[in-house]
Design brief:
Order of helices and strands: HEEHE
Strand order of the largest sheet: 1-2-3
Structural class: alpha+beta
Radius of gyration: 12 Å
Distance between the termini: 42 Å
Strand content: 5-15%
Number of strands: 3
Helix content: 40-55%
Largest sheet: 3 strands, mixed
Number of helices: 2
Number of domains: 1
Shape: elongated
């Protein structure tokens, strides 16, 4: 198993953990949309995701 496979697996697992907390992702533009509930945010996970090249944006649309 190469380092590229390991990196992809780390990224996939991190996105999975963060989706459970309410984050949304756009992989094409490498953007993570923050959850509406700010209590569910994780500074450590956001730092790890930012190191993988993702940017963050607030959710500007009301979801029902």
């Amino acid at each position: 198993m190469g380092t590229e496979d390991r990196q992809m697996r780390k990224e996939r697992n991190l996105r999975y953990q963060m989706r459970k907390k309410g984050y949304l992702f756009n992989r094409e533009q490498r953007v993570a949309i923050l959850p509406e509930d700010s209590k569910k945010r994780s500074a450590v996970q956001e730092k790890r995701l930012r190191a993988l090249g993702y940017d963050f944006q607030y959710n500007m649309f009301q979801t029902t």
